[in-house]
Design brief:
104 residues; two-stranded antiparallel ribbon
Length: 104
C-alpha cells in the first residue's frame, strides 16, 4: 500500500512511522458508535486523527483545516487507518510461528 501524503503550504508530507498510541486512537475511533456525533465533532475527530498519524511539526489542526478540502478529510483518515493496518500486519507476517526448524 502506498504511504498516505498530505500537502501543507505546498509541501508534500508523509506520516512518521506509526506508534502504538496512533494505532490505539484509530482503533478506538473506528470502533466507536458515531451515530450521536454532530458533523462538526465527526470532522474534528478525523482532523485530530490525521494530525496524530502524521506526527510532523507542519501538520497541525490549523494547517490541516486551512490546506485540505473538506471532502478529503474523511477519506484521508480512512486511508491512514488502512495504511496503519498494512504496516502492522506486514511486520506480523515475519514473526516466527512457534514451530522449530525440524517442524516439531
Amino acid at each position: 500500500m502506498d504511504t498516505p501524503k498530505i500537502k501543507i503550504n505546498g509541501k508534500i508530507i508523509q506520516p512518521a512511522p506509526p506508534k502504538m498510541k496512533v494505532w490505539r486512537e484509530f482503533l478506538a475511533f473506528f470502533d466507536k458508535d458515531k451515530g450521536k456525533m454532530t458533523v462538526e465533532e465527526f470532522l474534528s475527530a478525523h482532523v485530530a486523527l490525521i494530525v496524530l498519524a502524521f506526527n510532523q511539526p507542519e501538520v497541525t489542526t490549523e494547517s490541516v483545516e486551512e490546506n485540505m478540502e473538506i471532502a478529503d478529510v474523511v477519506p484521508l483518515a480512512r486511508q491512514l487507518f488502512e495504511w496503519l493496518q498494512a504496516q502492522t500486519f506486514a511486520k506480523l507476517v515475519n514473526l516466527p510461528n512457534g514451530e522449530t526448524e525440524t517442524g516439531k
